[in-house]
């Protein structure tokens, strides 16, 4: 049997109020002095204006006593939950979630801290990485739900949602005396290594061990991780940012390049408000497949004929543009131009190929029919 050569492609309530363990912190108000504003590196003319993080730190330091905060938890599917903190934790919130960030920025302004695009550089000393919020699809969707779909967010409970499934916590800060100014967000990873489960934990109280009475205990991390201001994400801890949002920037960069090639080579049609770039960013499977995709080996017409011959649910409009309605259509289209479907010459059955290996060109004359 003749085998068609193909390229290789592998597919495949937060806590009870009295049980949060926190590191010792200075609960006094931030003593950082206001520093002269240091401008962020100016974007190119064809780029949007980015947040001046130094101005933000100065302004926020001056308004720190007038900030309100509310907390949200989110799970591994990036579903947010509301939660409640006890009043006795008020003195710990800003030192744990805010003052360290402001201090890093204001002190950095005096030592030459520079802000650079996350996609264009590796983490270096005295460099703060920044990326557009819209480029991190999971973060963008999470904040959109918190801001625009609040009525759909349910309250977290250990019985229904399980603390072990949580991925992060979001502190949403608003300016009490300036309601027109947009909220900003501090996001931290929830590590299960910092959690104590009630069934297996003991607590030490008044000189003796006792049964741990809470459902869960959590040690709040006091490091700086992720800050979201306006449409910019500032990355203080690169590895935790990448784990928080399952974001592999090298893969994403290559995927973005492949998307540009696809847009030049194919005519595609999307519903209003949707485009190829935004669809790809939300689908890890598609990002992985784009890493090895060769764009240009199949034409628009061949892709349409290929879909028809495989009886796939992928349509084209009156102008011949291929219609992509959702992520499933996107996966089908990418599999098409990667030649991931075949018909058996023996049985006539249709298959989707999960793994392919390119064969060497056969020697001698091709077999005769």
Give a topology summary.
Blueprint (H helix, E strand, L loop, with lengths): L19 E2 L31 H10 L4 E9 L4 E3 L7 H21 L3 E4 L9 E6 L4 H12 L9 H4 L4 E10 L8 E6 L5 E3 L4 E4 L2 E4 L4 E4 L6 E4 L2 E4 L2 H7 L4 H17 L2 E2 L6 H6 L2 H7 L9 H10 L12 E2 L3 H11 L3 E3 L6 E3 L17
Parallel strand pairs: 1-11, 4-5, 14-15
Antiparallel strand pairs: 2-3, 2-6, 5-13, 6-7, 7-12, 8-11, 9-10, 12-13, 16-17
Helix pairs in contact: 1-2, 8-10
The major β-sheet equals: 8 strands, mixed
**Backbone CA Rg:** 26 Å
**Number of folding domains?**
2
**Average of per-residue pLDDT values:** 80
Q: How would you sum up the global shape?
A: globular
Helix count, per DSSP? 10
Characterise the protein shown here:
With 369 residues, the protein is α+β, with helices and mostly antiparallel strands. It has ten helices and 17 strands. The protein has helices spanning 53-62, 90-110, 137-148, 158-161, 238-244, 249-265, 276-281, 284-290, 300-309, 327-337, and strands at 20-21, 67-75, 80-82, 114-117, 127-132, 166-175, 184-189, 195-197, 202-205, 208-211, 216-219, 226-229, 232-235, 268-269, 322-323, 341-343, 350-352. Helix 1 packs across helix 2. The N and C termini lie close together (11 Å).
């Amino acid at each position: 049997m003749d085998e068609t050569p193909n390229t290789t492609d592998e597919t495949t309530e937060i806590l009870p109020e009295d049980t949060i363990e926190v590191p010792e912190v200075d609960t006094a108000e931030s003593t950082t002095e206001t520093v002269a504003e240091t401008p962020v590196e100016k974007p190119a003319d064809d780029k949007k204006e980015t947040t001046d993080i130094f101005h933000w730190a100065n302004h926020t330091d001056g308004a720190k006593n007038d900030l309100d905060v509310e907390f949200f938890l989110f799970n591994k599917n990036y579903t947010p939950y509301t939660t409640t903190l006890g009043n006795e934790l008020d003195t710990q919130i800003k030192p744990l979630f805010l003052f360290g960030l402001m201090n890093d920025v204001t002190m950095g302004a005096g030592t030459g801290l520079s802000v650079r695009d996350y996609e264009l550089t590796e983490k270096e000393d005295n460099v703060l990485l920044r990326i557009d919020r819209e480029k991190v699809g999971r973060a963008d969707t999470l904040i959109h739900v918190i801001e625009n779909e609040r009525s759909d967010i349910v309250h977290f409970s250990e019985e229904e949602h399980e603390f072990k499934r949580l991925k992060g916590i979001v502190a949403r800060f608003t300016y009490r005396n300036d309601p027109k100014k947009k909220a900003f967000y501090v996001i931290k990873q929830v590590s299960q290594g910092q959690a104590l489960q009630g069934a297996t934990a003991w607590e030490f109280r008044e000189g003796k061990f006792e049964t741990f009475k809470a459902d869960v205990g959590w040690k709040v991390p006091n490091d700086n991780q992720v800050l979201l201001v306006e449409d910019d994400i500032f990355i203080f801890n690169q590895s935790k940012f990448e784990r928080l949002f399952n974001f592999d920037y090298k893969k994403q960069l290559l995927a973005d390049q492949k998307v540009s090639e696809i847009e030049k080579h194919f005519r595609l049609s999307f519903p209003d408000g949707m485009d190829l770039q935004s669809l790809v960013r939300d689908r890890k499977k598609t990002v992985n497949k784009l890493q090895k995709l060769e764009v240009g080996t199949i034409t628009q017409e061949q892709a349409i004929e290929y879909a028809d011959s495989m009886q796939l649910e992928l349509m084209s409009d009156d102008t011949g543009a291929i219609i992509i309605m959702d992520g499933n259509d996107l996966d089908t289209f990418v599999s098409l131009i990667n030649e991931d479907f075949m018909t058996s010459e023996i049985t006539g059955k249709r298959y989707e190929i999960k793994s392919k290996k390119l064969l060497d060109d056969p020697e001698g004359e091709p077999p005769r029919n």
